[in-house]
Amino acid sequence: MKKLKIAFVCVHNSCRSQMAEAITKELASDFFEAYSAGTETKPRINQDAVRIIKDLYKVDMNLTQKSKLLDDIPQELDVLVTMGCNVECPFIPTQHREDWGLDDPTGLPDEAFLHTAKVIKEKLLLLRERIENKEIDIQ
C-alpha cells in the first residue's frame, strides 16, 4: 500500500498541527506522509510545543519544520485533519476529513501541551487502525 498523504490544519500552523505533523513522522512514517499548514502563519513554531516534542520524541521541530500556509502542502490529500480551530477551514479535496477538536495549549502550563501530545498520539494511532481495518475507505 502506498503511503497516505495526511495534513493537519489549524489557523496559525504553530502549535497543534505542528505537533501532529512531528508525532506522525515519528510514529507512523511507514503509513503516512505527514504535512501541516494553516490559514495564516506565525514567524516561528510555538517554542513550548517545540520543547515538549523534543522531550517526548527527541525531535527538534525548529530544525525539521516551519509554519506553512495551505498552498505550501500537496493539494491532493488522502486524509485531512482539522485540529479544532473553531473556524471554518477552506475546502481542500480529500478522501477523508475529520476534526479532532483539540484546545490550543498556547500560554498554558506544560501539562496542557503534554495532554495535547497524548491525545494527538491516541487519535493518530486510532485513525491508522480504522484505515487498516477498512472502517474508513481510502483508495
Report low-confidence residues grouped into runs of 5 or more: none
Helix content: 25-40%
Main beta-sheet annotation: 4 strands, parallel
What is the radius of gyration?
Answer: 14 Å
Characterization of the model:
There is one protein chain. With 139 residues, this protein is α/β, with parallel strands linked by helices. The protein has a single domain, classed as Rossmann fold, CATH 3.40.50.2300. It contains four helices and four strands; from the N terminus they run βαβααββα. It has a four-stranded parallel sheet with strand order 2-1-3-4, with helices on one face. Strand 1, helix 1 (16-27) and strand 2 (32-38) form a beta-alpha-beta unit. Helix 1 packs parallel to helix 2 (47-57) and helix 2 (47-57) packs across helix 4. The protein is globular.
Topology:
Elements: E1 4-10, H1 16-27, E2 32-38, H2 47-57, H3 61-64, E3 77-82, E4 94-99, H4 110-132
Parallel strand pairs: 1-2, 1-3, 3-4
Helix pairs in contact: 1-2, 1-4, 2-4
Tag the structure with descriptive keywords.
19% strand; 139 residues; four-stranded parallel β-sheet; alpha/beta; globular; single chain; Rossmann fold
Describe the structure concisely for a colleague.
The chain is an alpha/beta fold and 139 residues long. It is 36% helix and 19% strand. It has one domain (4-132): Response regulator (Rossmann fold, 3-Layer(aba) Sandwich), CATH 3.40.50.
